[in-house]
UniProtKB/TrEMBL annotation:
Entry annotated with the keyword Disulfide bond: no
Binding site for GTP: 206-213, 231-235, 253-256, 319-322, 345-347
Keyword Chloroplast annotated: no
Chain sites annotated for binding Mg(2+): 213, 233
Taxonomy of the source species: Bacteria, Pseudomonadati, Pseudomonadota, Gammaproteobacteria, Enterobacterales
Stated name of the protein: GTPase HflX
Length: 429
């Protein structure tokens, strides 16, 4: 659709320092280099500079832009990657000057998401975000067609093509939105079914590469793809775990967040992030060994507010303590003795039992505990109690053949069970 330069795997990285905090900007640059590495691109040179505010034409100053063009020519790089959001005009001007593709931070993140998408839903979400991004840059497409030409048969082909492109984009976006709407309805049906069955949902959230998928695998014995790279996980994964005094609980692994996450991505992943909004509890996974712990947590808070999930109860999980010296697994509690922070290592498994203990305390609420004596003919009721995983202890009374048992379950589940099995209360000792 566009007459643009081809993208290769050799890139020039550009990062401009706007703040006075040198350490912060250096960490931003390192994160950008990790993004580039995650995209599978080789960085042949890194160009930095300082400005008070972006230049209108090139984002960087004219001299810096010419320096970038000279480095591109010298190194033979095929793409220039900016750690900033560029306007369509700035991208066009830089491409003309450098004679190669220029991609900003948003375009880079979209490319990584396109590489990681595996499920049909994930691919649709990424395509939607890409189309919305492209729609803002249509004005510079088809440069081989003039906007207006004189002469018979040559009047206005460029303008006609531009309008056609816009219509095709609108139609494709509408089609994808329709498909994602159906996916959202399917997810909503699953959530309603879990809600009716009073199955709580715990959603893993956190900054990208904080170790969410590794922890998910450790807690569920799943085999979700993990890697030491940004956005290793894109498609959401749901698994069931058993939590003491709670029973069956759904654990959801979600896409990681990042600073300056493109708004189009947040909108496109609305169906996926719905798991986060409607979760019973959010496990906020934090890389405790990262130098920017506080800033990463703030970045997650910003995204949670944007998707209106900032009111959902949260439990902090400080991961990767194996990389810290002198830090042992533990549970931090508030003044009311409620767990608020758990220190674990998904890599070694240290502290996972404490995490399950904290989950039990945060999810269980009031617990009902009763001693029952079931007659031999109540095999169906006994089977149901086994299915609910609520039997703490069981014994047989030999004289009568009755089965004695001690059960524990959340009060809400006990009340619902009593409504469905009204004779249950007759067997309470």
């Amino acid at each position: 659709m566009f007459d643009r330069y081809e993208v290769g795997d050799r890139a020039i990285l550009v990062h401009i320092f706007f703040s006075q905090k040198k350490d912060k900007d250096t960490e931003d640059l390192r994160e950008f280099e990790s993004l580039v590495s995650s995209a599978g691109v080789e960085a042949v040179s890194v160009i930095t500079g300082s400005r008070q505010f972006p230049h209108v034409k090139y984002f960087v100053g004219k001299g810096k832009a010419e320096e970038i063009a000279a480095v591109v020519k010298t190194t033979g790089a095929s793409v220039v990657l900016f750690d900033h959001v560029l306007s369509a005009a700035q991208e066009r001007n830089l491409e003309r000057l450098c004679a190669c593709r220029v991609i900003d931070r948003t375009g880079l993140i979209l490319d990584i998401f396109a590489q990681r998408a595996r499920t049909h839903e994930g691919k649709l979400q990424v395509e939607l975000a890409q189309l919305r991004h492209i729609a803002t840059r249509l004005v510079r497409g088809w440069t081989h067609l003039e906007r207006q030409k004189g002469g018979i048969g040559l009047r206005g082909p460029g303008e006609t093509q531009l309008e056609t492109d816009r219509r095709l984009l609108r139609d494709r976006i509408s089609l994808i939105l329709g498909r994602l709407e159906r996916v959202a309805k399917q997810r909503e049906q699953g959530r309603r079914a879990r809600s009716r069955a009073q199955v709580p949902t715990v959603s893993l959230i956190g900054y990208t590469n904080a170790g969410k998928s590794s922890l998910f695998n450790r807690m569920t014995a799943a085999d979700v793809y993990t890697a030491d790279q940004l956005f290793a996980t894109l498609d959401p994964t749901l698994r069931c775990i058993n939590v003491t005094d709670v029973g069956e609980t759904v654990l959801a692994d979600t896409v990681g967040f990042i600073r300056h996450l493109p708004h189009d991505l947040v909108v496109a992943f609305k169906a996926t992030l719905q798991e986060t909004r409607q979760a019973s509890l959010l496990l906020h996974i934090v890389d405790a060994a990262d130098l920017r712990v506080d800033e990463n947590m703030m970045a997650v808070d910003v995204v949670l507010k944007e998707i209106t999930a900032d009111e959902v109860p949260r439990l902090l999980v400080m991961n990767k303590i194996d990389r810290l010296s002198g830090v042992m697994p533990r549970i931090d509690r508030n003044e009311e003795n409620v767990p608020v922070r758990v220190w674990v290592s998904a890599q070694t498994g240290a502290g996972i039992s404490l995490l399950f203990q904290a989950l039990s305390e945060r999810l269980s609420g009031e617990v009902a505990q009763y001693e029952l004596k079931l007659p031999p003919e109540e095999g169906r009721l006994l089977s149901r109690l086994h299915q609910l995983q609520s039997i703490e202890k069981k014994w047989v009374i030999e004289e009568s053949g009755h089965v004695g048992m001690l059960i524990r379950m959340p009060v809400a589940k006990w009340c619902r069970l009593c409504k469905e099995e009204q004779k249950l209360v007759d067997y309470i000792v």
